[in-house]
Write a structure and sequence with these properties.
Rossmann fold; nine-stranded mixed β-sheet; 19 helices; binds glutamine
């Protein structure tokens, strides 16, 4: 087993997760079996209770683990299906040590960061990638953070235990461009490497994030000051068109060759063609369309990361540039002329969400899509919104709502799941992870999923469609096309007399991949294009 550890220097948001995922992709192109893992040094047990504005989207794994959005990158860039073994926070590590202390597992001993916390970290690294050739572990945060120290110490110990030739340290760092001086600066990188060396880690490869190309002189300088060979100073330029260019860019810099050489891996040559094909499609689209994303987090793409990526995948699939116009749900509530607002929008997508803010604006958007025959994809909250809209404007229940928004509504078309009603704690208690959905023959959904009978999709919600209203909805043109076979929960519905209006209680975006666009997203964009061609 070979271990690659990825650390970050100078600033956060360097795209370490993307770099780790792209390295994983390159090693898979060389037919190696890769396992990806992430440690986050914060004290929350998981990001499930954090605000998406601070942390970005909460990515959900098949087994229901709520995790950092980098795990989404790992699943999109590599073929791995991740589980709770692939993601840990300091909170989990400390909780486990404290639990053991209370159980008496360390009787007589003083419990300390070294060795007790570091042992827990090492155990989790050793346990994760049992059948992989290469394990890639990313440490969240930035070198120099106090809370990151136990992780770095654990990595240093692993290099000692597993022999240095099986362990590789990759440091991703920023080379800032100072406008006033008109030059790139290497000093912050030197200092962050010095921090690593202080703890006993000498990086083997330095990946330099930079706005403009770094010169040979600069590579020499980084090599000299950071004590790495020149060829191991890798340039990672800002990506212009798409994140899916990154494997190509790193391959061009020979990253996979250097990694294989340093780890003494005899790997096959790199079959990079699939990534080239993807980038080719992105760079030369044959079509263009615009989708309105009706949302409450406006400037933070990370809050809807996987939705953005799934749309990017449908661009690849349909060979079409898909522009995303973010529509402020609250602003929509104030609009007199909604028509004007949606003038250039070819399709409407309402993503998942929680709480009251912007809900009425989203209902307006769903109404507009239904009445004007605009393709509509409602995801989780977006599906619930479509149900409320239908109950209000088709069935005439003007006060219809979800009990999440108005607990005492007289027409609770969306209500809390039975299994959720007695739950008090907020962390990790929603309906989470992959559940089967049985598709109803001869429906749009059935066709979109290529006439499969069962599909599995990932969930993250507390509320559901209220089955008391099912008959009435059906009698008025709503088709329930996907149901959970064990509990008869509504998973998918679609409008009968509408070209493409689909609501799903799950999150299809979590299973979309650049080479395997999720069928709902692929088909949604195809419907947008079809409608435009007809006009
Ligand atoms: N707030 C809704 C629920 O809990 C929808 C959740 C979501 O969109 N992920 O059911």
């Amino acid at each position: 087993m070979k271990y690659i550890f990825i650390t970050g220097g100078v600033v956060s948001s360097l795209g370490k997760g993307l770099t780790a995922g792209s390295l994983g992709a390159l090693l898979e192109c060389r037919r190696l079996k890769v396992c990806m893992q992430k440690f986050d040094p914060y004290l929350n047990i998981d990001p499930g209770t954090m605000n998406p504005l601070q942390h970005g989207e909460v990515y959900v794994l098949d087994d229901g683990t709520e995790t950092d959005l980098d795990l989404g990158h790992y699943e999109r860039f590599t073929s791995s299906i991740l589980s709770k073994k692939n993601t840990f926070t300091s909170g989990q590590i400390y909780a486990s040590v404290l639990q053991k202390e209370r159980n008496g597992d360390y009787l007589g001993k003083t419990v300390q960061v070294i060795p007790h916390i570091t042992n827990e970290i090492k155990e989790r690294i050793y346990a994760a990638g049992e059948d992989a050739d290469v394990m890639i572990t990313e440490i969240g945060g930035t070198t120099g953070d106090i809370e990151g120290l136990p992780f770095l110490e654990a990595l240093r110990q692993i290099a000692l235990e597993r022999d240095h030739e099986n362990v590789l340290f990759v440091h991703v760092t920023l080379i800032p461009f100072l406008k006033a001086a008109g030059e790139l600066k290497t000093k912050p990188t030197q200092q962050s490497v010095a921090k690593l060396r202080e703890i006993g880690i000498q990086p083997d490869i330095i990946i330099c994030r930079t706005e403009i190309p770094i010169s040979d002189d600069m590579r020499q300088k980084i090599s000299l000051f950071c004590n790495v060979p020149v060829k191991s100073v890798i340039e990672e330029l800002d990506l212009k068109v798409s994140i899916y260019e990154l494997p190509l860019l790193l391959h061009f810099e020979k990253l996979d060759d250097i990694v294989c050489e340093k780890l003494h891996i005899q790997a096959q040559s790199c079959e990079i063609q699939p990534w080239e094909n993807i980038v080719e499609k992105i760079k030369f689209p044959k079509n263009e369309c615009t989708i309105g994303l009706v949302a409450k987090y406006l400037d933070v793409k990370d809050a809807y990361k996987s939705v953005y990526e799934a749309i990017a995948h449908s661009s690849i699939y349909n060979n079409c540039k898909v522009n995303i116009e973010v529509i402020d749900a609250e602003e929509l509530e104030q609009m007199d002329d909604v028509d004007e607002f949606f003038k250039d929008i070819g399709g409407i997508l309402i993503p998942g969400g929680f709480g009251n803010r912007g809900v009425e604006g989203k209902i307006l958007a769903a109404e507009f899509a239904r009445e004007h025959h605009i393709p509509y994809l409602g995801i989780c909250l977006g599906m619930q919104i479509a149900a409320i809209e239908f109950a209000r404007h088709v069935l005439g229940y003007t006060d219809a709502n979800s009990t999440e928004m108005v607990p005492a509504t007289t027409h609770p078309v969306i209500h809390m799941m039975l299994t959720q009603r007695n739950i008090q704690k907020k962390g990790g208690t929603m309906r989470l992870g992959s559940y089967p959905c049985k598709l109803v023959p001869r429906t749009k959904a059935h066709k979109i999923y290529q006439e499969m009978i069962y599909v599995n999709e990932r969930h993250r919600h507390r509320y559901e469609f209220n089955n008391d209203y099912r008959k009435e909805f059906e009698a008025n043109g709503m088709v329930f096309s996907g149901l959970n076979p064990d509990f008869d929960l509504v998973e998918i519905f679609e409008l009968e007399n509408h070209p493409w209006f689909i609501g799903v209680q799950f999150h299809p975006e979590f299973q979309s991949r650049p080479q395997r666009t999720h069928p709902l997203f692929a088909n949604f964009v195809a419907a947008v294009l079809q409608r435009r061609d007809k006009q």
